[in-house]
């Protein structure tokens, strides 16, 4: 009770009388440099008072809105995109990875349909697919009777391979190149080969010139395309990428059919993405099996970790040093694990808080591809004599 009396006493002593307060307010409103308030108090006309009051209140509302909008804009972390076009004498030549659209030789096994299904299961770790259930029993019988069957070695031995009979010509800016200049890599297309892979010294080339010139023999008579399983094309698929990055064919691969000449013009596009909250990259992320960070490489390592923890083995098509999964493990464990990864979103890409956010620096090679029929009459005769093949085969 005593404290309350003291508080009331102090309030009464500190607060001026109502009349004094009105006097102070009148003096402030009359002398302030805030022009609108001065006019509201001094003018005698009620209409002018109302008009000035509306003006003052409107200006006050605009000020509040401006202050709030500036705070909102600041905390949205705005960025500016800058595009710089540089004309340079020499650029670092990209890596080019080639695959044959026909994955296996027709004479490899008696039941090639089963091999295609097995490869679908294996390559599903890179690209999700739907396997038809009508082949399940046939596939189960094969797996039980061939438990030591290695799809990795089978693919390496019986898939497309670069040698003197498949790589007929190879030139790099006028200088000859050979099959040993290509690095073997497994992709969803089986055996693929990369020119200018990461282990080689950087090749810097002039902007003009012929670039990389290749002539392939896809050997259609020795390969099968299995149209019943969706393999209806014949030719070469290729992707142009940074030498430090993995080839990614899903949605990015370019195609050239047999009997066609494809000419590819490339540009180099380097993107620098800001870190969060201005952008979506996280500069502290490092990959275990790749020198530079990429979403594709990160996604593969994420899948590899999850599969190795769940199945106790590692698909050979993914990076890592784990024990290779056999066919039964692929069918019974790896394939369901990939399904869980897709459905449950265990390996996500894109945003800063995802498993694999956007890279902070990325080099792409936008392409323009033009096609023409391969060889005129004289060229057909020339290659027919040189390769000892019939004109119809050359076509």
TrEMBL record:
InterPro entries xref list: ENaC (IPR001873)
Main location as per UniProt: membrane
Annotated Gene3D superfamilies: Acid-sensing ion channels like domains
Residues passing through the membrane, by range: 50-75
GO cellular component entries: plasma membrane
Subcellular location(s) of the protein: Membrane
Membrane topology classification: Multi-pass membrane protein
Pfam family of the protein (one): ASC
Keyword Transport included in the entry's annotation: yes
Protein's UniProt name: ASIC5 protein
Gene name in the database record: Asic5
């Amino acid at each position: 009770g005593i404290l309350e009396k003291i508080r009331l006493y102090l309030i009464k002593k500190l607060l001026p009388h109502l009349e004094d307060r009105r006097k102070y307010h009148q003096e402030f409103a009359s002398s302030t440099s805030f022009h609108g308030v001065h006019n509201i108090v001094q003018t005698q006309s009620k209409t002018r008072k109302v008009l000035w009051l509306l003006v003052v209140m409107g200006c006050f509302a605009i000020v509040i809105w401006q202050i709030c909008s500036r705070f909102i804009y600041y905390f949205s972390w705005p960025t500016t995109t800058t595009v710089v076009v540089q004309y340079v004498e020499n650029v670092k030549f990209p890596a080019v990875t080639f695959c044959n659209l026909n994955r296996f030789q027709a004479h490899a096994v008696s039941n090639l349909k089963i091999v295609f299904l097995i490869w679908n299961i294996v390559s599903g770790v890179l690209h999700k697919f739907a396997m038809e259930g009508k082949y399940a029993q046939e596939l189960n019988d094969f797996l039980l009777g061939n438990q030591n069957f290695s799809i990795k070695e089978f693919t390496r031995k019986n898939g497309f391979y670069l040698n003197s009979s498949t790589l007929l010509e190879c030139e790099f800016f006028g200088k000859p190149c050979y099959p040993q200049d290509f690095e073997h890599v497994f992709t969803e297309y089986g055996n693929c080969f990369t020119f200018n892979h990461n282990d080689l010294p950087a090749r810097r080339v002039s902007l003009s010139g012929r670039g990389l010139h290749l002539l392939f023999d896809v050997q259609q008579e020795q390969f099968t395309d299995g149209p019943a399983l969706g393999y209806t094309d014949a030719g070469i698929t290729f992707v142009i990428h940074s030498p430090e990055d993995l080839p990614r064919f899903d949605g990015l691969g370019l195609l050239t059919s047999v009997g066609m000449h494809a000419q590819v013009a490339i540009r180099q596009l380097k993107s620098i993405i800001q870190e969060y909250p201005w952008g979506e990259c996280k500069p502290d992320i490092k990959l275990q099996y790749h020198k530079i960070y990429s979403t594709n490489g990160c996604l593969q390592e994420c899948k590899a970790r999850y599969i190795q923890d769940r199945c106790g083995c590692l698909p050979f098509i993914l990076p890592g040093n784990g024990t290779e999964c056999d066919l039964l493990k692929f069918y019974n464990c790896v394939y369901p694990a990939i399904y869980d990864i897709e459905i449950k979103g265990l390996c996500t890409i894109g945003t800063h808080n995802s498993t694999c956010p956007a890279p902070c620096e990325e080099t792409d090679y936008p392409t323009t591809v033009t096609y023409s029929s391969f060889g005129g009459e004289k060229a057909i005769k020339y290659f027919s004599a040189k390769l000892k093949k019939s004109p119809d085969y050359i076509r």
